[in-house]
Amino acid sequence: MAFCTLWTLSSGAKADIYKEVNALVQAGQWKAAQSLADERLKTSPTDPQMRLLKSHIQTGMGQFSDAADTLRALTLSFPELPEPHNNLAALLARENRHEEALSALNAAIRARPDYALALENMGDLYLALATKAYAQALRVSPSLQRLQNKQTLTENILKAP
Fold this sequence. Notes:
0% strand
């Protein structure tokens, strides 16, 4: 599932910190990005954009549980922002926690009904659930060609870029 980062930048020095952190993230310099993000959060602990970036950094560093915690806290502080809900759903789906991921995606879509990325992720999640259901059905009835066809089709769609 895809991730999204808030890109709304304010003017002046504040915007520069976001650009710096983003540049470090894009370069894969996770530790340096984390240091700058933590520095910013010391002075502005409720900054939603930097908290979202922090979750992205944590994900990049393989700290998935910490990233999920950061996103959960962000969704509680700013339930009207769709991005944290969407990103949390991506982490939950990664752990095969599909019901929780669906709930998070529904929250993202309630926050912004035209949020194409969350809608796409919802479709991907439903396809993953369909693939899983077809596989279970094939274990019960392995000779049903229609199930094999459906499973192959959903797997191929999920593999598409």
